[in-house]
Design goal:
CATH class of the largest domain: Alpha Beta
Structural class: alpha+beta
Low-confidence stretches: none
Mean pLDDT: 95
Order of helices and strands: EEHEEEHHHEEHEEEEHH
Distance between the termini: 44 Å
Strand content: 15-25%
Number of helices: 7
Number of strands: 11
Strand order of the largest sheet: 2-1-5-3-4
Largest sheet: 5 strands, mixed
CATH architecture of the largest domain: Roll
Length: 244
């Protein structure tokens, strides 16, 4: 264990943990849009910037989700430098995604009421945090999407902008998306994910007839976990009734 100080509070922290993790565990709010406990920290959104002072007296701004705690570290989560950087970041995000509620609320909390720049596409809802890409690679293991291009043309997309053939339709990407940019719909026995150009057939429960999950997802799980081929012949509700 090491002792650090966050906003004037001395805190015992586990060695190897990050400033962000320790702060959140103690109820100290540091905003972030690209962080999720299921994947490794990435530091993409830059909203979690804090000001640190090390034992030798040197101060600088760092991304708290990537910076490990160390003995004697002092952290200021709301210095004027920190708030200035956060306001600058949220101004850019609000200019990119002016209609996204999550961005609007975060902007208001930082005193930003309107975007300083005109949006190229007022309906844009992707902030390029990379969470969808990382959860698909690190958790699911499908690697169906990636961050492509650079600068203003950067985007999350399937390879070569073609249908994401590796996508299993699990919707992990949609669940972790902080802005709701990834939408899906189950209709007429298919799961459609427009952003990835995917339309996957849903498995039909042999007992009740309910279409409950993409066949490709179930096949992937059977192969990955070496399960019996009939493991998903029934939907979760029917399996529960059967005591499975």
């Amino acid at each position: 264990m090491v002792t650090i100080n966050i906003d004037g509070r001395d805190i015992q922290a586990k060695e190897g943990s990050t400033v962000f993790e320790v702060a959140r565990s103690r109820g100290i709010l540091i905003p972030a849009l690209c962080n999720h406990e299921a994947v490794k920290p990435y530091g993409a959104c830059r909203l979690c910037m804090v000001e640190i002072t090390t034992k030798d007296g040197r101060s600088r701004l760092v991304t708290s989700c990537l910076y490990p705690v160390e003995e004697g570290l002092k952290v200021n989560t709301k210095s004027e430098k920190v708030l200035s950087v956060r306001r600058g970041v949220i101004e850019l995000l609000l200019s990119r995604c002016p209609q996204v509620r999550e961005i609007q609320e975060l902007a208001r909390s930082l005193g930003v009421t309107k975007p300083p720049f005109k949006a190229r596409n007022k309906d844009e809802d992707c902030i390029l945090c990379g969470l969808c890409v990382r959860v698909c690679a690190e958790v699911v293991g499908a690697n169906a999407i990636s961050l492509a291009n650079r600068g203003t043309k950067k985007e999350a997309a399937p390879p070569f902008h073609e249908t994401a053939e590796a996508c299993i339709g699990c919707l992990s990407c949609a669940f972790v998306c902080p802005t709701g940019a990834i939408k899906a719909e189950d209709e007429k026995g298919y799961r459609v994910i427009p952003r990835w150009g995917v339309k996957l057939k849903l498995k039909r429960c042999k007992a009740c007839g309910y279409h409950f999950a993409p066949e490709r997802q179930l096949e992937y799980m059977i192969e990955k976990e070496n399960l019996p081929s009939d493991s998903f012949d029934h939907c979760p509700a029917c399996r529960a009734k059967m005591g499975q």
